């Protein structure tokens, strides 16, 4: 093999190796994309989402689990845990069941202020459904949530 | 009429007493650590949406954990956890149903830290196993904090580690539970 041929072969191989290494490094260190930058796969009301899980949990899991959802409903309560993670609870105040939106908590992300009774659209990643088998009401959970917009009540 | 009113009042009182026996949270924390000595990084995930109910009258303790709600520092690790290990689309929930072994050691009307042992059935990845764990209950200002650290063998729940990374992931995961329970009203 001549020197010229070797160069012709080696250079593309080296370029491929470098590109591969860069890809692996970036993939290995990749952080979760902010939900604010993700388009919702489905937009629905809190009531529709709860009903979907209550009627057929398996089907609803296949449809919504792990997907970005934009859920609209009324804020019935909100809380923060000891680490400051904020949860907005969307649903009917007369019912124990709700959609629980665990807010993103990223620095600089919009986290409120929210007030009870406000209509809101929250975008978050559906992490599943807890049926009412502990007497606490049923819940659909959205993680890494961000407010899409705030609507007038 | 008088008897009817007394009966209604009695039912109301009984209902309230029953409700106050139960403490709960829907935002408990469970973290797990499957870091092995040869892991190139920490393999840790945390779930901040654990539902937990403690019945102080019976000592019954129940927990529900949605697997998709485990969060990792790196997106790739979270994807591998959900797709290759716990298969969270197929098995979206982990549940514990058990009870305090000796609930009488806890005085729920007096603030304090009480070491406890919990025994019950843990269902994860579609497999159910009897587990026993030590922990503590902290009674403070009308709330109860449930804390425990225990270890579980992943193979006991049918969770297999691919051969390629067999020495990079611990075969036993350390599980840390921390739930602050409010009275159920």
Give descriptors for this structure.
heterodimer, A: about 150 residues, alpha/beta, OB fold (Dihydrolipoamide Acetyltransferase, E2P), five-stranded mixed β-barrel, about 30% helix, B: about 180 residues, Lipocalin, eight-stranded antiparallel β-barrel
Give a quick rundown of the structure.
In chain A, a hairpin with a 7-residue loop joins strand 3 and strand 4. In chain A, helix 2 packs across helix 3. Chain A is of the alpha/beta class and 153 residues long.
Characterise the protein shown here.
The complex is a heterodimer of chains A (153) and B (185). Chain A has 153 residues and is α/β, with parallel strands linked by helices. Chain A folds into two domains: 1-30; 35-151, Nucleic acid-binding proteins (OB fold (Dihydrolipoamide Acetyltransferase, E2P)). Chain A has three helices and six strands; from the N terminus they run αβααβββββ. Chain A has a five-stranded mixed barrel. In chain A, helix 2 (46-55) packs across helix 3 (57-64). The longest helix of chain A is centred in the N-terminal third of the chain and has 26 residues, at 3-28. Chain A is elongated. The termini of chain A are far apart. With 185 residues, chain B is α+β, with helices and mostly antiparallel strands. Chain B has a single domain, classed as Lipid/polyisoprenoid-binding, YceI-like (Lipocalin, Beta Barrel), CATH 2.40.128. Chain B contains two helices and nine strands; from the N terminus they run αββββαβββββ. Chain B has helices at residues 2-21, 75-85; strands at residues 22-35, 44-55, 60-66, 70-71, 93-100, 112-124, 127-140, 143-153, 169-183. In chain B, strand 7 and strand 8 form a beta hairpin. Chain B is elongated, with a radius of gyration of 20 Å. Chains A and B meet through strand 5 and strand 6 of A and strand 1, strand 2, strand 3 and helix 2 of B.
């Amino acid at each position: 093999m001549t020197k010229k041929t070797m160069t012709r072969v080696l250079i593309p191989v080296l370029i491929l190796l470098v590109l591969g290494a860069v890809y692996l490094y970036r993939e290995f260190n990749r952080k979760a994309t902010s939900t604010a930058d993700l388009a919702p796969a489905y937009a629905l009301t809190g009531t529709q989402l709860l009903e979907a899980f209550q009627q057929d949990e398996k089907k609803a899991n296949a449809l919504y689990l792990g997907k970005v959802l934009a859920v609209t409903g009324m804020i019935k309560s909100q809380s923060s845990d000891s680490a400051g993670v904020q949860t907005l609870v969307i649903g009917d105040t007369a019912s124990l069941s709700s959609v629980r939106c665990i807010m993103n908590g990223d620095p600089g992300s919009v986290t409120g202020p929210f007030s009870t009774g406000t209509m809101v659209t929250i975008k978050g990643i559906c992490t599943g459904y807890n049926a009412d088998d502990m007497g606490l009401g049923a819940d659909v959970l959205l993680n890494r949530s961000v407010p899409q917009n705030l609507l007038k009540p | 009429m008088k008897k009817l009113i007394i009966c209604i009042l009695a039912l109301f009182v009984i209902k309230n007493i029953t409700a106050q026996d139960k403490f709960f949270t829907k935002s408990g924390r469970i973290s797990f650590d499957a870091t092995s000595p040869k892991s190139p990084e920490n393999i840790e995930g945390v779930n901040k949406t654990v539902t937990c109910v403690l019945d102080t009258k019976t000592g019954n303790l129940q927990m529900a954990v949605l697997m998709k709600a485990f969060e990792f520092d790196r997106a790739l690790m979270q994807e591998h956890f959900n797709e290759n290990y716990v298969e969270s689309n197929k098995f979206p929930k982990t549940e514990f149903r058990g009870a305090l072994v000796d609930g009488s050691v806890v005085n729920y009307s007096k603030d304090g830290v009480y070491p406890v042992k919990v025994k019950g059935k843990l269902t994860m990845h579609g497999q159910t196993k009897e587990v026993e764990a030590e922990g503590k209950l902290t009674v403070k200002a009308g709330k109860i904090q449930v804390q425990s650290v225990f270890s579980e063998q992943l193979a006991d729940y049918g969770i297999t580690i691919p051969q390629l990374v067999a020495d990079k992931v611990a075969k036993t995961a350390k599980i840390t539970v921390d739930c602050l329970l409010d009275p159920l009203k």
